[in-house]
């Protein structure tokens, strides 16, 4: 199989055509160069297959560790959110109790004011002066 010549005479081509030809030549050059590099990397991979297996085991271990950490983080987050919701409900119940006590105390104070004004009127009408 003959290799095509990489040299072309481009004096008659337009600028866009020149750019296209140059890009095509670059792509062709990459195709010719890449197989050698990929073959070298395959040879290195064969020589270091034990390292690759150890790396794969380490990668699986890292994935498991990440998954366990992720699940634990989710569980802890869920527990914290549940606790915060519990505290919100507790606080709301306490505020409701305090407000009901304040309302009952307000009613008692108003009743005491009425009783005090009735006593003062009765004392003023009876003519008792101090």
Automatic annotation (TrEMBL):
According to the lineage, what is the superkingdom?
Eukaryota
Q: Which InterPro entries match?
A: DUF4577
Report if keyword rRNA-binding is assigned. Answer: no
Keywords carried by this UniProt record: Membrane, Transmembrane, Transmembrane helix
Q: Which Pfam families match?
A: DUF4577
TM segment ranges = 65-89
Where is region (Disordered) located? 36-56
- Name the record gives this protein: LSME1 protein
Source organism: Struthidea cinerea
Phylogenetic classification of the source organism? Eukaryota, Metazoa, Chordata, Craniata, Vertebrata
What's the gene? Lsmem1
């Amino acid at each position: 199989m003959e290799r095509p010549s990489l040299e072309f005479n481009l004096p008659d081509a337009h600028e866009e055509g020149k750019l296209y030809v140059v890009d095509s030549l670059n792509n062709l050059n990459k195709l010719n160069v890449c197989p050698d590099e990929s073959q070298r990397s395959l040879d290195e991979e064969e020589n270091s297959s034990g390292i690759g297996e150890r790396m794969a085991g380490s990668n699986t271990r890292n994935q498991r560790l990440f998954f366990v950490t992720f699940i634990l983080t989710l569980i802890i987050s869920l527990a914290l959110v549940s606790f915060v919701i519990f505290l919100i409900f507790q606080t709301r119940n306490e505020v409701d109790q305090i407000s009901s006590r304040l309302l009952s105390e307000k009613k008692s104070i108003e009743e005491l004011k009425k009783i005090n004004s009735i006593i003062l009127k009765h004392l003023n009408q009876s003519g008792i002066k101090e």
